[in-house]
Amino acid sequence: MPIVVVVGGQWGDEGKGRIVDLLARKARVVARYSAGNNAGHTIINEKGEFKLHLVPAGIFYPEKTCLIGNGVAIDPEVLLQEIDQLEARGIDTSKLVVSDRAQAIMPWHKALDALEEQARGASAIGTTGKGVGPCFADKVARRGIRIGDLLRREDLAERVNQTLEYQNRVITRVYDGEPIRFEECMDRYVDFGRRLKPYIGDVQSVILQAERRGEHVLLEGAQGSLLDLDHGTYPYVTSSVPSSSSSGAGLGVGVGPTDISRVVGVFKSYCTRVGNGPFPTELFDEMATTLRDHGKEDGRGEYGTTTGRPRRIGWLDAVAARYSVRFNGLSAVALTRLDVLDELPSIKICTAYQLDGKTIDTMPARESMLNRVRPVYEELPGWQTPTKHVRNFDDLPPQAQTFIRRVEELIGCPVDLISVGPEREQAIIVNPIF
Length: 434
Ligand code: IMP
Ligand code: MG
Known about the structure:
Layout: E1 3-8, H1 16-23, E2 29-32, E3 41-45, E4 48-52, E5 65-68, E6 73-74, H2 76-88, E7 96-99, E8 103-104, H3 107-120, H4 132-140, H5 153-174, H6 182-196, E9 200-201, H7 203-212, E10 217-224, H8 249-253, E11 260-268, E12 271-273, H9 286-292, E13 312-314, E14 316-317, H10 318-328, E15 332-336, E16 346-355, E17 358-360, H11 367-372, E18 374-381, H12 398-411, E19 415-419, E20 427-429
Parallel strand pairs: 1-10, 1-11, 2-5, 2-10, 5-7, 6-8, 7-9, 11-15, 14-16, 15-19
Antiparallel strand pairs: 3-4, 12-13, 16-17, 16-18, 19-20
Helix pairs in contact: 3-4, 3-5, 5-6
The site of inosinic acid has 19 residues, from helix 4 and strand 10.
């Protein structure tokens, strides 16, 4: 039965939460498969505006089961706060299942995230500071602590004992930082385990049961594919696998590639990036401010959901998008925030790069090359007409239709969904995804 994956196609913040919220209507199970509470999704529905960092965007539909997969790094304190806040606003979280195999973000991960960034100096990555990178590093180094370990004091003590001494040595000797105290950490995390216990379970079996019953499952990506540890703009990436390329989505919940039937990539009609690293189409003029502050008064401006940082802004980069379409194996694109372009007299799309006098149409791997590329632009006429109310492709202004058709051509993937505003209904379904 269809497992549909939704991934961010660019550097994150493409509006995945909004698209998942829309697609979740047809799914029975919605699962997060990667990243941690570095992610931030803004969702606006009839109950108000919500900012989620860990709980899947399907939570607003009471009959859906929501899962947090093994591929996610969970700060238990943040998860509990999010659950409490949802409950306080009348959202039922009783159908949430959190994988016992997911990694727990521990106090030393947060300390190390800050210390490592400081030590990087001018080449800081610009992380969200939530401890996600050091947590995934521990997972790979096989000294991570998993959510299931929080359920029994003895198990936790054994795991913390194995790791904390080492991490405290790094914190104090490498970085001159303050050591983490064993007892304090134990008491807090045993308590987190006690409070999370009703939610902890086996995510993979929930998905398999849903598949057997013929129900739709939606796998919700976090961040963007160009922040992918393998395929992104390394080393300016996150430490997990936002893409759906075989190691991402399936790995993060425990299903195989043959279980996945469709992969939807969410792309903004322009580009944004938070944090440092290459961004070939970045704009530094008034156009950046215009796009960043569009809808700012309604909280829709381009400012980070997790950190509040202003996002860097650029034109749509079709070279990067094409690359992302390929390594994600995308079957469809959801193009978001088309309405943000409504007032512009003309719109640019980057179709190729100039690198040392040559034209190239692929994304180089090396940072030094990515920093040197110059975008080659194609300029299309704007529509200068509001699109917020449009619900059918044919009712879009002809210039907007031309823009979308050109995007499809350049990136090599059909645009099946277009969003023209933050509300659930402000969408144009060109081809139903389920
Ligand atoms: P980290 O994931 O906190 O280690 O940060 C690594 C990079 O990924 C930084 O450039 C962050 O700004 C970026 N990043 C992490 N999470 C998100 C997200 O949800 N949206 C956009 N950028 C993100
Ligand atoms: Mg976000």
